[in-house]
Design brief:
Layout (H helix, E strand, L loop, with lengths): L2 H24 L2 H8 L3 H7 L3 H25 L4 H13 L12 H9 L4 H27 L9 H22 L2 H17 L1
Helix pairs in contact: 1-2, 1-4, 1-6, 4-5, 4-7, 5-7, 5-9, 6-7, 7-8, 8-9
């Protein structure tokens, strides 16, 4: 990696937590310079604008979550165990090096749906990739006779994702972790019913 690439990577790594916590609109240039210790000229000498930094920061945060999911799911065999590992990552996200601020898909989707088309598109693509991953595991589980053939993989994938993301949102808004725990338990029960 050359010096310019290292500087870009540094900017992304330092601003990613800020964008994930404060969102695109809430993150100022001062926030970016404070997080990096760099000047405005240094940041915009490496990125065309705030949009480019925010998009790269989203990709960085998403990569962190993806790496955690792949690592935890790789520790187990069987489709059911992999789905349970996916759920448990979110149940125990404090035990993992999760991005500061929580799930970047949820954070970005909530803010960007009406305000930032490029970030909305990134969040939508990430969500569809997650749906394909979860749905693919369910389909594979059906093929391997781990799950009942009557299960609709896409429907169950969307249901599980909604349950997990909803549990996180409810816990964050209310401050009641037992609500998250209750919904996560329901998601695990659903997986066991497959």
């Amino acid at each position: 990696m050359n010096k310019a690439e290292k500087t870009r990577q540094f900017i992304v790594e330092m601003t990613a937590p800020v964008f994930n916590q404060k969102g695109y609109l809430g993150t100022s240039l001062s926030d970016m310079t404070n997080a990096t210790g760099l000047t405005k000229g240094s940041i915009y000498g490496n990125f065309a604008n705030k949009d480019e930094v925010a998009l790269a920061a989203f990709d960085h945060n998403l990569r962190i979550v993806g790496d955690i999911l792949r690592q935890e799911m790789g520790k187990v065999s069987g489709c059911r165990e992999k789905l349970l590992a996916y759920v448990r990552v979110y149940e125990n996200f404090l035990k993992h090096p999760f991005p500061v601020g929580g799930c970047p898909i949820q954070n970005t989707a909530v803010e960007a749906d009406d305000t930032h088309p490029m970030l909305k598109q990134k969040a939508a693509e990430a969500l569809m990739n997650l749906k394909e991953m979860v749905g693919g595991l369910i389909k594979k589980g059906i093929e391997k006779k781990e799950f009942r053939s009557s299960i609709n993989p896409e429907q169950m994938a969307l249901t599980l994702i909604s349950m997990i993301e909803g549990a996180i949102m409810i816990a964050k808004v209310t401050g009641k972790l037992n609500y998250k725990k209750s919904v996560i338990q329901a998601a695990e029960d659903l997986i066991h019913s497959f």
